[in-house]
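Progress against Task 2.4 (sequence-to-structure conversion) is shown through the following example record, which the project officer requested during the mid-term review.
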Amino acid sequence: MCGIVGISGETNVANEIYDSLLMLQHRGQDAAGMVVCNETGELNSRKSMGYVRDVFQQSHMNKLNGNYGIGHVRYPTAGGAGKEFSQPMYVNSPYGISLAHNGNLTNSRTLTKELFHDEMRRLNTDSDSEVLLNIFAQELGKHREINPTPEHVFEAVTETHKRCDGAYAVIALITGFGILAFRDTNGIRPLSLGIRKGKTRDEYMVASEDASFAPQGFTKDRDIAPGEAVFINRDGTLFSKQCAKVFQRRPCIFEYVYFSRPDSTIDEISVHKSRMRMGSKLADNINKSNPNHDIDVVIPIPDSSTTAALQLAVDLEIPYREGFVKNRYIGRTFIMPYQEERKKSVRRKLNILDLEFRGKNVLLVDDSIVRGTTSKKIIEMAKEAGARKVYFASAAPAIKYQNLYGIDMPATSELIASNKTDGEVAEEIGADWLIYQTLEDLIETVHAGNPEIQEFETSIFTGEYITPLAENYLEELEASRLDKVKHQREKDFLQDGED
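Structure tokens generated for the chain above:
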């Protein structure tokens, strides 16, 4: 999962892109980058590994001058580690195109071969984002126009849709011409358009989440539709077009469970309200399955489960307490690169308030259970603090399959629920009782926010993927996502750095 932003303004936009990337930091903590273009067509850029606050120092910001630009925070899902994987990525032909991408292509290997054999384009990395950039650049270059029109740009997007499978929300900067944003034909990854009145014209912002609009003075205009492209030229004029013949809005349901900020609205569905409904559904299920429960207190595992836990406690008429103090300077354990780091981080990230646990039957609420590593450690902490019994509720169903569309899920074999019953998972993590949200209830909680959406991307729960898959893709991805393989890649990267 990554965060992307683009701004077209009357004056320098670098500081606003920086602030927006801070708002999107939760979507990626591996690397950050920005590129801006001024009125003379000069590019200024900065990208590196690390948090936004560390990548951009004042000396860098002083050099980032331009009235339109794009930014990216990276969470690696495809490709390796290193500065060369930071985005925006750049290709000089045609025009000079910089691209920021959130998602994952499922046919990137096939496209890489096509690019080399048909177009003699050799890529610098194994990143699917670089593949996507070169596919779009190749299609745009076919027009061989010195001054491309919006229609030329839209035709290139149409051809990109035809060739690329998977999930992609994209913001690209075409040097000297403007900013382009487009979304895959299923709208799996979020992308929203904001607008602000300038002194002489409207100014625009495109971002992964609309929560980043208000702090910069933008109001949400709309979500970019699946298959749609929006082009804002260097003069600030906006053009839009549906570039796919077949399209359907099928957003990733895990955005509402975990990844997105609670103050975001995605495809007209409030993340906060969705999580409230998740809490209510969990409460209903607890009352149905265990009406004589002896829960004394409901405690969330911060932060993404807090809303659901509070609503659950209200519906059950049980006290809600915050029993964990979170260290805000530790990254999200879900997106840490491999198991060893996650194990170390749980106790560094959370301190426990013993008095909220001592002698009580505690219901812990989390957004989901992935490997079970974090859940097991937290339950151990609760029992060490004196909890009599520890029950566990997950706002999401059991995660049983790897994700293909931009979430770096573990290999299926490393998901705790992939080959275990609910009872076996409870025993493995040390819970006295475990309850999952049902998939039907989860879909209902999100669907209620926008009844026009008929289907969600739910493959991590069902194993049913909504886009075409290359031959042996699942098997190859499974092998590459094993923790031992990721760890070896990281060691190789560090070794290369020392050499």
